[in-house]
Structures are given as C-alpha cells and as structure tokens.
Amino acid sequence: MNNNLLPRIGTFFILIGCGLLIIFAGSIFAREFNLLYLLFAVATLVLGSGLRRMAPRPEPTRFSTFRKVRQRSRHHDEEKQTQKDQKK
Length: 88
Fold this sequence. Notes:
This protein is mainly alpha-helical. The chain is about 80% helix and about 0% strand. Helix 1 packs antiparallel against helix 2. The protein is rod-shaped and about 85 Å long.
C-alpha cells in the first residue's frame, strides 16, 4: 500500500471516532444512553491511531537550506584538511 495513504486513512478513522464520541455525548444528554456509539468510537480511534503510527515519518524539510549550507561547510573543511595532510 502507498506510504502516503496509510496516515490519511488513519486520520479519517480518527475523525470518524471523534464524531462518534460527539454522538455518544449527545445520546447521554438525550437520556438515551447508547454504549454502541462509545464502542465504535473507541474502536475507530484505536484503528486510526494504529494506522498513523505504522506509516513511516516523512523526511523533515524544515531548515533544509540551513542543512545544505552546513553540509557544504563541512565538506569544504574536510577538503582543506585533506589538502593540509597531503602537503605534509
């Protein structure tokens, strides 16, 4: 299955679980206590969070320019060090 699809399906199930929790709360206020809503809400929340955790985390893109500059600086420093070692 596509790695980008699993977190989206997990998010869908989490949203459905939250909606079912709201319906369960509504059934309490209406004095028609229905545990089936609670059961399905907990099941979909667990399923959704499980699917979200199974998917690998995406590569962070924040501060990518800073990382590139730092890598270039390290590479440049290593080249200088190798040149000094070759002169000796």
